[in-house]
Known about the structure:
A: mainly alpha, B: six-stranded mixed β-sheet, 3 helices, about 15% helix, transport (chain A), cytoplasm (chain A), phosphoprotein (chain A), Vps35 (chain A)
Amino acid sequence: MPMTPxxxxxEEQEKLLDEALNxxxxxxxxxxxxxxxxxxxxxxxxxxxxLGELRTSMLSPKSYYELYMAITDELRHLELYLLDExxxxxxxxxxxxxxxxxxxIVPRLYLLITVGLVYIKTNPCLKRDxxxxxxxxxxxxxxxxxxxxxxxxxxxxxRNVLPDVAEAENESEGTVRDSIDFVLMxxxxxxxxxxxxxxxxxxxxxxxxxxxxxxxxxxxxxxxVRLSQLETVNLDKYRKIVLPGILEQVVSCRDAxxxxxxxxxxxxxxxxxxxxxxxxxxxxxxxxxxxxxxxxNIIISLIDRLATYSQRADDTSSGIPSxxxxxxxxxxxxxxxxxxxxxxxxxxxxxxxxxLVNLAQKCYPMRVDYVDKVLxxxxxxxxxLNLDRVDYTxxxxxxxxxxxxxxxxxxxxxxxxxQLQQYAPLMEYFDYxxxxxxxxxxxANALDNETLIPTQEQVDTVLTMISPLVQDQxxxxxxxxxxxxxxxxxxxxxxxxxxxxxDIPDQQYLIxxxxxxxxxxxxxxxxxxxxxxxxxQAYQLAFKYKxxxxxxxxxxxxxxxxxxxxxxxxxxxxxxxxxxxxxxxxLQGAVAVGLMDFENHETVAYEFMSQAFSLYEDEISDSxxxxxxxxxxxxxxxxxxxxxxxNHEPLRTQCALAASKLLKKPDQxxxxxxxAHLFWSGKSLASRGEEIxxxxxxLECLKKGVRISSQCMDPSVQVxxxxxxxxxxxxxxxxxxxxxxxxxxxxxxxxxxxxLPNLEANEETEQINKHFSNTLEHLRSRLESPESxxxxxxxxxx
Amino acid sequence: MLVLVLGDLHIPHRCSSxxxxxxxxxxxxxxxxxxxxxNLCTKESYDYLKTLASDVHVVRxxxxxxxxxxxxxxxxVGQFRIGLSHGHQVVPWGDPExxxxxxxxxxxxxxxxxxxxxxxxxxxxxxxYINPGSATGAxxxxxxxxxxxxxxxxxxxxxxxxxxxxLVGDEVKVERIEFKKN
Lengths: 798, 182
C-alpha cells in the first residue's frame, strides 16, 4: 500500500474540512430531494447524518466555524419546509418528540432547536416553555467547541422570536423577563465552556489555546448583544436583573481572558445612560477581578465613553444627570480598586489618576477642585510609599508627566493651574530633569497663550514653581548643559518676563521686585538673559508713573526708586563680568531718565552716562568694540536735552577726548567727525532745549578729522576718509553752519581729485570713486536748482 | 519678487514675541528675500526668519548677540541696489541728511535702516529710504507711541511697490507706496 505523504497541520485541516464539506453537500442534496418528495422522515435522516459532521474533534475553531456555517445554511431549507407544512395546517404530530430519538446528541439537539423554532413561530403560546426547554437541553453537549457553536445556533435561531414585552396577555407567550433568563442562562453556560478551554490539553499548548479562545470570544459576547437588543429592558430591569446576572458570571468564573473581554463588552454594548446609573456596581466588580486582568484599561475605556457622552450632549435632556455624582463615584471606586489590588504597578495607579483627571476635565471643566482632588490623592499615594524623586526615564515619571500636563493643555491658562494647590507639591516628586521639563512646558504654554501674570503673589508662586529654570538646584547634575539648549531655555524665560505684568503701576513695581529677587539668584550665566528684560520693563514703568503724575503725588519718589532699582540691576551684570550689555543698558536708561522731570533727574542721568563711560574706559579694550561703543555714547548723548552746562560740558569734552584717543587713526577720524554733531544738534538746558549750533566747535572737529586723515599712511584709507569728511562738511554747510565755507569745500574737493588717480586700480578704489562721484552729483544738483534758501553753492569748484 | 523688510524685534530683551496677527501674515514660501535691520536679538528670531525664506540678510544692531553680523550690507534685487544698516551708528538718529551720507557711500538706490522704531518711507534726491519700524512694537525711550510695523517690497524691474503693515490697536492696516528708479 502506498504511504500517504506527511501533510503540514494547515494542509491537514484543509483536507479534513474538505472531506466534511463534501459529505455535507451530498447529504444536503439528499435531504432536499426527500423533502421535495414530502418524505419527511427520510429527509430528517439525511439531515441528521449531515449534522453528524459537527461531532468531530479534529477541526480547529476556524475550520469548525466554516463547517458549521455550511451546515446551518442547509438547515434553513428544513426549517422553511417545516414552516410551510405547519402553516398549511399539515401538522406533523409529535415531531418534537420524534426528533428527540434521532441518533447522537449533537445532531439531535440541532434538529430539536430547528424544530422548536418552527413550533414557536407557529404556536406563540408554546414560546415560554419551549425556550426554557431548549436552553436547558443544550447542557447535553459539554465539549467546549461543540457546545459553544450549538448554543450559538440556539441564540441565532431565536433572534427574532424572543418575547420583548413587559407584561404578556397570555403568560405562556412569555415576557421580557423570560427572555432575560433565557439569554443569561445561555450566556453563563457558554462562558463556562469557553473558560474550560483554558485548561484543556497540555500546558505547553497554552498559547495556542489562548489564541483559539480569542477567536471564539464573539460567540460568548453575542449573548450580551442580544440582551442589549431587548427593547423593554429599561434601566430598572438592567440594574436589577441583567447587570447583576452578567457580573455574577464574570466575577465567579475567575478567568482573566473572559473577564477582560466581557467587562469591555458590557461597556460597549449597553447604553451610556445605563452605565451612568450602575457605576458603583460595575466598579465594585472591577475590584474583584482576577489578578491578571488589566483593570486600568477597563476603567479608562468606561471613563472615555462617559466623557465623550457628556461632551456630545447638547440639550438638557441628555448629559450627566445632576443626581449622578460621576466624579465622586469614580474617585471613590478607583481608590477602592487600588486598595484591593496591591500588586498593581505604580505607573498603572498613576494612569488611573490620569483617567480621573480626564473625566474631570471633560465632564466638569469648571471644577478645578476635582482636578486638585486627584492631585492630592496622588500625593497621598506617593507619601504612603515614602517615595523619593522619580527617575525621569521611569514609567511612573512618564505617567506622572502626562497627569501634570493635562490641566496645562486644557485650561491654556497658567493662572488656573496656579489655583491647583497640589500642583507644586506633586511637581516635587519629579527628579531634576522632570521638574525642568515641566517648568519649560508651563512657560511655553503661557507664552503661546499670552497669559499675563498680573499680581505679585502669583508671580512669586510661578517663579518658585519653575525654579529649576531660574536657579541652580540641589539635585542638578554637575555635567555642563549644552550651551545652545541653555541659551534657548533662558531666552524662553526672558520672553516670559514680559508676561509678568500688571496695569496697576504699584503692583507692577512689586512684580518687578519679586522677579528681580528670583532671577537675581540665578547665577552669572543666567542673569545676562533674565535681568535685561526686567530693566526694560522698569524703564517703561517709569514712563507710566510720569504719565500719571497728576494722580499720584508720590510719583517722583517712585520714579527715583525705579532708576535706583535699574542701577543696581545693571551693576549686578557688571559684577558678572559683562561690559557691552550693561553699557548699553545704562545708555538706554540715561535717555529715559533724561525725559523724566522728577527732581534731580539730571543728576541721575549724569550718573548713568558716567557709568557708561566708566565701562567704556575700564572694560572695553578691543578697538572695533571701542569705536562702536564711543559712537553709541555720542549718538545717545546727542539726543539728550536735560543737562545744564555744568554737566553737559564735561560730557562733551569726554566724548571728544575719547574719540581722539582711539588707537587707529581712521577710527579717530571718524570718532571725531561724529562728535561734531554734539556741538551742532546737541541740546542742553543752557540752550533752552534748542540746538546748540556752535559752528566753530563743529569746524574744529572737522578740521581735526582732516588733520588725522592726512596722517594716515595708506593712501586708499586717506582718500576714503577725505570723501567721508567732505560729506560731513556738506552736511553742516547745508544745515546752516556759516563757519563752513564754499572755499573749504572746494579745497577738499581739490585735494581728493589730486590723490584719487594715485590709487591702485581695485574694487576698493572703485567704491571710493563711486562715493566721490555721488557726492559731486549731489553738489551739482544743488548748484543747478536755485530753490535752496541761503544755501547757495556759488563759487564752488567741483 | 517679494522682499520682507523688518527689524528691531528686541526679543527677549524688550518683547516676548511678534504680534499674533503679524505671525499669521508671514507665511513661508511666498517671500524670496528677507532684509533685517538688526536687533533681533537672539538666534531664535534668526531661525524663525530662516523658516520664512532661505535668503536672509541681517546687519548688526546695538543689542544683537551675534557679533558677526556686518555693520552694513548691499544687496542687489532686480534692478535695485539696496543698502542695509541698523542706523544706531548714524548721528543724529533718523536724520534724513545723515542717512543720505550713507546712501552716497554705499551707492544704493534704496537705503533701509531702523533703530527709531518708527516706520518711514520717503524719496530724497531720487533715492528711496525705508525704515520698517519695529515689528514687535518694542520700547524706545524716545517715543511713547510705538506702532508695530513691517514692510513688504514687491520689486518688478525698475519699480518697487512698498506695502507697510501696521498694527493699530487690534487691526492690521496696510498702506501702499510706489517708487520708480530713474
